[in-house]
Structures are given as C-alpha cells and as structure tokens.
Amino acid sequence: MTYDEETGVFTVTESDFEASNARVPALPDWVEGRQVARAEYHSLLQHLSRQSSATGDVPCNVKWSNAHRLDPTIGGKCIHFTAASEGDIFVVFAGIPQKHETWLYVQISPEGVALYKSMRVVTTQLLDGASSLGSSNLYQSYFVCVTEDTIGGVTIIQYGKTPDNEELPHVWLEFEIDEVLSLQYYAFGSGMYPVKVMGVSIIDQPAQYFIVCREGTPRKDNGRCSQQCHEECDGCRTTGSDSPTDCIACKHYSVGFPYIEGDSGSFTCVATCPEHMEPATETSKCTCIKQMEESGDGGTVTCVTECPLTHYDDGNVCKVCSTLCEDVSGRGTRVCTGPNSGDCSVCRYTTSDGGCLEGCSPGQKAVAQDEGGFRCDQCQPGHKCVRGDEMEEICPAGTHSSPERTSCLECAAGQFSSPGSQYCQDCPAGKYSANSGASTCTACPSGQYSSSSGSSSCQVCPAGQYSASAGSTSCQDCPAGQFSAMGGASSCDDCPAGQYSADAGSSSCQVCQPGQYSASTGSTSCQDCPAGQFSRVGAATRCNDCPAGQYSADAGSSGCEACAEGYTSEEGATECYDWDQCSPNPCENNGVCTDGVDSFTCACQGQYTGDRCQLACPAAWASHGTECFHLGESSGDYLRARGRCAATHNSLLAMPKDEATNTFIANLISSSQRPGGRYWIGLNDLQRDSAEWEDTSDDRWTWEDNTPLGWNNWKPGEPNGEHERCAMIIPYRDDWNDLVCTATNLYYVCQKSAE
C-alpha cells in the first residue's frame, strides 16, 4: 500500500497491486486503485480517552512514607504542590501502598490529564489549559483534592492548577467514583523524565471554598465543580465531552458503536432504542428485532424489522435464500422459506421432465424457461459449460471439448483442430505440430520429412539423401556422382574433380586412387592414366607425362620407371631406347672413343691421359689416371732422389696411396731396363724425434705432400724400427720396406699431375 501523509489514506496503486499479486495470485483485480485504510495519529491519552477501560501509563519512582498520610473522610483533603518535568507528573493515592488495586492516581502530562483507578483509566481531560508545561525548568502550581463521602458512598477527585496571574486555583477535572476507596497515603511519581516537586502542603478546607471551575466542570448548587457531559451520559470519560459515545454509563439505553454482535466495547447512549431495535430482556442494551446475516465493514450488524423477500427468518437472523431458488421477490412473493432447494417458491433449475434440481451440473447449460427458472440441457459438442449456468463457450482452435463438456482440452502435439471441434485430427504425413494446442499443421521444411500422420516433429533426411521441397513424406537417394555429407540436405552436391561416387545414396565421394583421375565434377568413376603418364597421389584431376629418361609401359601407373643404364626416353615415353655416346666423339687429342651402355671410354694417344684425353704428361712419362710417373736413371740416397724429382718437371717422389697406383708403379719398374732395381718412393718418417725411433708404428709416416699414411703395403714385419726412416718398393714385388735414408744404391720414381 502507498501512504499519503497529508490525508492519512492508504491506497493500493498499480505497482502495489503487481507486487502483491506476484505473492498472492488470487488477489482480485478490483483491489487495484482502491483506498483501503486511513491512519490517524493520537497520543496515548487521546487513545485511552476513547476506551471504556484500558491500562495506560504506570508511575515510576513512587516512594511511600508515613509522613505522607491523609484522611479524606473529614471534609476532604487538598494537596498543593509546585512541580516541573519534561514528561509526566504522577500524584498517587493508596489505601495499601503494596497493593496496586488500591491505587488512585492522577497523570499530569504535556498532552493532558488522566485519572486512573486500580491501574485503569477512568476519565481524561485533554484541553490545553489542563496539561503540564513539559519543561524541567518551568515550575507550575498544582492541586489534587480527595473527598470521601462515607454517607453517600462516593469518592470525589478534583484536579487543577493556579495560573501565574491569579490567586485562586482553577479546577480542570472533577470525577465521582461510586465507592469509598479508604485512601490513607499519597506520593509522587515520574515517567520517562525526572520530576522536581517542592512546596507540598495539605489544606483541610473543602475545595469548593477557594477554587474556580473551568471548561467542562461547571459549579453545581452544592458548590462542587462537576463534569459537564452529554445529556444521556451518566458520567463521561473526557471532562467537558458532549459526545454520547464518551459516556461511562447511560441514563436510559445504550447501543453498540459501531453495533457489532457480541462486542461489549464502545457504545452510544440514547433516550430510546432506534428503529428496528428493542431493549434486551432485563437490560438497558438495545438489540436488533431481526438482523441480517451478512455483516458490514468491520463486522457491523444491520438491524431490520422484517426479513427481505430474498431472505428467510432463521431465529430472527435473516439469511439469504439459496441461489437455486428463482428470484420472485419482484412479484411480491417470498423467494424461500428455508435454506434447501425444496424450500424454494420456484426452483431455479429443473430437469427436462420438470423435476427440481439444485442446479445444472458442469457440462450442462441452463436454458431459460418462459415460466421462470431454467432447464438443464447437455452442452453441445465442441463447447464447454464450466459452471452449469447459461454460459456455453465454443472451444477455440487447437482444442476439443472434454467428454464431460466441462472444459476444452488442448490438442496433443501432432494434432490440430478448428474452432468448435469435438475431436482433434492427426497432422497428415509431410506435416507436423510441435506443441500442444495447434490450430494448423506446419509443412516439414526441405531437407526433412514425416512419413506418417500424427507427427509432432519431422525427421531429418540422413546423409546420402535429400528432400527438395517442403511437405515431403520421404527422402530420395542422391544419384551416382553426387553426395550429401550431412543430414537435412535439400539438394545433393556433385562430387568434386578427382573424386567419384559409383552408387546412389552416397554420403561422401571416393578419392581416385594413384594411377587414376577424374577431370570433371559429378563423376561416377575414375579413368586410368594412359601409358606414358602417371598420377602419384589420390584425388588427381589429370595425369602427368613421365619426364625424359623415364617411362610407363602400362595404363594406370602411379609413377614412372627410370630407363636402364645406357637407355633414355623423351617426355611421356612408354619405353626407353639406347643412344650412341661416342657421337659426337667426346675424346680429345685424337683419343679413340668406345661406346658402352650409358658410358664411353677414351683410348688416349702418346702422352695424353684423362677421361677425355684432355690432359698430357711430359715426354717419356707414363700416365695413370690424371697422374704422370717417370723412372729416374741414376741412383743415390733419399734426399738426392727427392731433389732430382723436384728438378724434373717440379715433381715429387711417387706416392702409391692406393693399391691400383701401387700396382701401376710395380709394373712400370718390371717393364723397365732395371727390373731388379730398388726404387725410393715418397714415404718417410723424418719428422720423428730420435727418442721415438724405437716406435715401429706407422702412424708417424707421411707422404711427400705431407699427407698422413692411409692405405699401406708394408712387407710383413716392416717397418722394424731400426732407424730406417725412408721407404722403398721391393723389386719383382709390390710391397714396401723401410730403409736408412742414406742408402745410395737406390733408384727413384717421380710423380706429378697431368696438365
């Protein structure tokens, strides 16, 4: 609810209703925008002044003393005092201080004055002049008089205060209690704030001799300041009140205010009971002659003299006739005499044969009759009759009437209906309805199908199949040469070049194998590469020619074979052929060429050598490969032989580093004029220190060109480590021997590269 501080009204706004309806869905719509309550601020004293008997504030810090005693039966006693407080000031009287039920006290507040008996309020005075100042620094003179009349059996309480500019105190509250309270003690108390009291005195002189009566307490003939109340009040709770609802008791009759059955709280005083009411037996309370069963706002009761024609009398309570009764009150006829349908003057509902019913059942329609009332007929197919009344509703599209015709049921998924249908129909093949309550069916989209009626969904065409149009009842296989890789295809794709599909319904294409190809899309098979061509990997879109020097003799080759040695071929060859490598003659210097298989040899003339006779040795030198060799004609030691080779065409001593060269040198010596002579070769260990001469290993021997010894042909047991540091080749043999380098009877062999 939304509160308006200016008016105090609580209103249910639109946002209030939405928030409340979310928590309480059954909240009726009419609540929105309504003013539902009104708040009014009252102080505690204002609230208590409207209650017949209520507990209010209780005094604190009450201290009793034998010094504070009084006897109000002898002409009355008045207590005068001066006090100040921000809050309440209490003047407390008691018969027995320890028993609260004997207390009588006056509450002096900034809001007004209240009188309590036995801890319950009996009267109040709320005029501004009667209240305290509400300040801890401003003092005010007060008095409270108590008179107990033992002959009359009453106790009279008077309260007042003395204005600053007057001598006589003013009475603001006077109340008479119909019993002698036997008060003997008095004390002061406080509320939330402390009370400062001074100048306390007791005056035995009756109050009427020295007081001035104020508002609400006019002086009577006996000199008292008594309450002024409404003329029907026998005493009022608020001094000076003119309201008949503020009475402590009534002089004649009382009526509940508001009148709520069983509530003995608030009432108003009247001279006579109002219309439709009468005094209750042996009491002065007014009660209803007859009352309506329905209560008003807050439970208030409506009184009547006679029950309306639409009600019947049930022990002076007017109760509404059954809704099964026809309302004939307009004819001046009472609708019913009791609560049952048999008590109706005219039945509201009848069977088709005229029998009386309590009402049409759900699934039936109430049909109005000329003579009044209704006949109950079965609700039409395709309609619903929910409450058994005159309302017959057509079932909307997407629903059908229940067998009892009490409701419209949604069509299940896979079904549909038009308005007013008794039954739902299955969706035909090729269509579906995914949700319940469908009024139409939807055609399956392309790429999907439904083969049977009553489908709530469509099936996806599997891979390898397709449906080209909406509303399909089946899928077609992709033709050979095409495929659909995923389900839900509306068309098939051609196999790409290099691939094929031989059968219908393919979900993928096969790759052409090595040696095959397909040049265009949509192929149903692959072709073999023709002879002379090849495809090395799969998925080929064309074949390649075999390169020159290779060939493929058969179709479907995944590679080409190299031509054998001495054979060759052109590009795209299916076979190889031999060719003459001596044409033109590759040999130089009149060398003679001999053709071989993929090779040729040159026979060199004279001193020429090399693969093509392109190199020449000096005259009288023998050639071996690209090297030239010459036998020296004189003898001498190793160093002399070295020097003579250096002087002869700047050559070195011969270095047979391999077996072929070693054999060539041995044969050259054998065919010379000195076949038995000994010859130095260019191998020594002259680098070795004298301390290492005993080492017979050959890892220190080096050739004349300073390359280390690799292949060797030492005679068994050689070198023998006897200070023989130079090598010779043995005659008639091709093995080696170590020899002292100073031996002089040896010839030598020189070596140089051909040029």
UniProtKB/TrEMBL annotation:
<keyword id="KW-0732">Signal</keyword>
<keyword id="KW-0245">EGF-like domain</keyword>
<dbReference type="InterPro" id="IPR001368">
    <property type="entry name" value="TNFR/NGFR_Cys_rich_reg"/>
</dbReference>
<comment type="similarity">
    <text>Belongs to the CRELD family.</text>
</comment>
<dbReference type="InterPro" id="IPR001881">
    <property type="entry name" value="EGF-like_Ca-bd_dom"/>
</dbReference>
<feature type="disulfide bond">
    <location>
        <begin position="604"/>
        <end position="613"/>
    </location>
</feature>
<keyword id="KW-1015">Disulfide bond</keyword>
<dbReference type="GO" id="GO:0005509">
    <property type="term" value="F:calcium ion binding"/>
</dbReference>
<dbReference type="InterPro" id="IPR016186">
    <property type="entry name" value="C-type_lectin-like/link_sf"/>
</dbReference>
<dbReference type="Pfam" id="PF00008">
    <property type="entry name" value="EGF"/>
</dbReference>
<keyword id="KW-0325">Glycoprotein</keyword>
<dbReference type="InterPro" id="IPR001304">
    <property type="entry name" value="C-type_lectin-like"/>
</dbReference>
<dbReference type="Pfam" id="PF07699">
    <property type="entry name" value="Ephrin_rec_like"/>
</dbReference>
<dbReference type="InterPro" id="IPR000742">
    <property type="entry name" value="EGF"/>
</dbReference>
<feature type="domain" description="EGF-like">
    <location>
        <begin position="578"/>
        <end position="614"/>
    </location>
</feature>
<protein>
    <submittedName>
        <fullName>Proprotein convertase subtilisin/kexin type 5-like</fullName>
    </submittedName>
</protein>
<keyword id="KW-0677">Repeat</keyword>
<dbReference type="InterPro" id="IPR018378">
    <property type="entry name" value="C-type_lectin_CS"/>
</dbReference>
<dbReference type="InterPro" id="IPR018097">
    <property type="entry name" value="EGF_Ca-bd_CS"/>
</dbReference>
<dbReference type="InterPro" id="IPR016187">
    <property type="entry name" value="CTDL_fold"/>
</dbReference>
<dbReference type="InterPro" id="IPR000152">
    <property type="entry name" value="EGF-type_Asp/Asn_hydroxyl_site"/>
</dbReference>
<dbReference type="InterPro" id="IPR011641">
    <property type="entry name" value="Tyr-kin_ephrin_A/B_rcpt-like"/>
</dbReference>
<dbReference type="InterPro" id="IPR006212">
    <property type="entry name" value="Furin_repeat"/>
</dbReference>
<dbReference type="InterPro" id="IPR009030">
    <property type="entry name" value="Growth_fac_rcpt_cys_sf"/>
</dbReference>
<feature type="domain" description="C-type lectin">
    <location>
        <begin position="624"/>
        <end position="741"/>
    </location>
</feature>
